[in-house]
Amino acid sequence: MNTRMKSHPRVGPLASGPGPVPALDVDALLDDRGTGIIVCCGSGGVGKTTASAALALRAAERGRRVVVLTIDPARRLAQSMGIERLDNTPRPVDGLRSNAKGNRKGGALDAMMLDMKRTFDEVVESQATPEKARQILENPFYIALSSSFAGTQEYMAMEKLGQIHARAQAEGSYDLIVVDTPPSRSALDFLDAPERLSSFLDGRFIRLLLTPAKGPARMMTAGFGLITAALNKILGAQVLRDMQTFVAAFDTLFGGFRQRAQKTFELLQADGTAFLVVAAPEPDALREAAYFVERLGEDAMPLAGLIVNRASPVPPGMLSADEAMAASARLRKREPTSLTAGLLRLHADQTRVVEREALLRARFAAAHPEVPTAVVPALAGDVHDLAGLRRVGQLLAGAP
Amino acid sequence: MVDADWSRVRLHVVTGKGGTGKSTVAASLALGLASQGKRVLLCEVEGRQGIARMFDVDPLPYAERRIATGLRHDGRPPGVVHALHIDPESALLEYLAMYYKLGRAGRALDRFGVIEFATTIAPGVRDVLLTGKVFEAVRRNRRNKGATSYDAVVLDAPPTGRIAQFLNVNKELAGLAKVGPIRSQADTVMTLFRSPRTAVHLVTVLEEMPVQETADGIAELTRAGLPVGAVIVNQVRPRDIAAADLEAARAGKLDADRVAADLKEAGIDVGEGLVDGLLEEARDHAERRALEDAQRAVVAGLGRPTYELPRLPGGVDLGGLYELAADLKNEGLA
Fold first, then answer.
1. CA neighbours within 13 Å on the CB side: how many for A217?
2. ipTM (interface predicted TM)
């Protein structure tokens, strides 16, 4: 086991916890042929997309045959990976670095960007007869559902993962799939998506819509009449009609959908899957990460570790923030524009930020001492090319 | 500066990319407005209970709660901030009760799973319910007996990537409900959202992706006919090193001897590479500042009034919110 993340250079009273936090050995995870799927999750704005692309690139350059499924990469990053077109198909990424001997160890990287609506349409097309598929795809209710239902993106990310995995198994095309998750409010949304879809399909209301007007609906009908009347009053009659047409056409697909969702969920629980929870060193992001870690435990999903992304770089030297501020004030008194005073103020600020982040991490570790953690210092600039991703990959792996 | 009189705005919508601190800015804006003696309602719609955490109060119910008082201003009594946590289920039940007097049917709706269906699955309906409640709070006035009326409403809105869709409720419903009461409700709401009484502010930090997303958001809002307000640049690094020094720092040409002499004079024990460390920090800072300045130029090119808030090294707590509120007030947004 590698010890590089075991201690931080400035361990003060704030950073001391009940014990050392286990280090996340990223390279061991990437090199382990048993790792078939890596899922990067976390709340929005923590750098999931960059982290997953960086992991995928690093794995490929270490000899894995990788596909990375991204959700919404920054435009320039997408361009540099050759996936600026949203066509829902993995494309090879050019420019991978070979090692010193010119041998890439057989590694390769494909990348794709998820097209949520397209994926949904494809599932419908693959499950239904052409006639029925057309009926569904043209239904206004379906159109709205497939492009804006809260959770569609999460579910489709999972669906796509299932598809790619099945194909990779059949064709032997990839031995590692890296998945970025949608920028949802909560990281949990990703895990809840299949459940939400099931509850949609099993929902009493949908069942009622399916109940033929005359049939063995028995006692339901009285109450249901009341409801349809109320809904027609509120929504307008045509909405309910569209919905009914959609549900009727979709009915035969329900079983298939539920089965697929269930299968993907099982895939996520399998041994070859590794979840990496990404968080920024901020209270909200770490709180979300904590929820997520607990939830993974409940659902028996394999957690590989926590990535604390974009951590402030630790300032060198042993000068404390208070000392620096005091000295800065003394110098300012003498010379208001003193450069050294500015440098000291900067140092004090930086030290305070780093101390706060260390405290937040220590609190997370106190509650979740078993979670291996990697701390990735923030880069000065944005990442928009393979060189940048490579740099992030090095930092993730704790390489200098 | 572009048209920066916000005094007529009744509804301030605050959006921003995840991680830029939009909730912090929304809360500070509410406090800033209250510090002008206004009675303010701060709403959240994402089920996060972020307001309760920021203001250090118990989780908010679906009811307006007074949570803070503004700062005293010119000797006038300060205004207050109320907060409301809007969840779609409660909003739907309230809506049904208010407009349809659905006694028995209302309960039946719940029993048959319709409430759940409408609030989580039916596309667009969720947003109509959330924005509908905000609309109701804005439109309320002193004639509504028994209800608290507000001088301004601040909405901590969904992130930039979703904001136009969220506010453009009647477009979201368009494919579905072409006629009917929910449709006319959506139309009324849109009239307010498109009027000058609304301003959609975008929060960003000076990094490439958030700034790009802000530009995209502005374009999208403009296309949807929604009034773009200010761009609020959050978490700005301290700027107390002169431009010439920054340049020297980037080039590695700062005068190490002078810094060492200054430190000595300030009574600091120079040793163990302290000077080198400080110069290294300066170079890193200068590099980041240069990137910030490049993004600042992009933000300036967006053609919207811009306000800056400092990065708070100690993190944001209630005191921090008041600090930021004072900044927003001094800069003229609140």
1. 16
2. 0.83
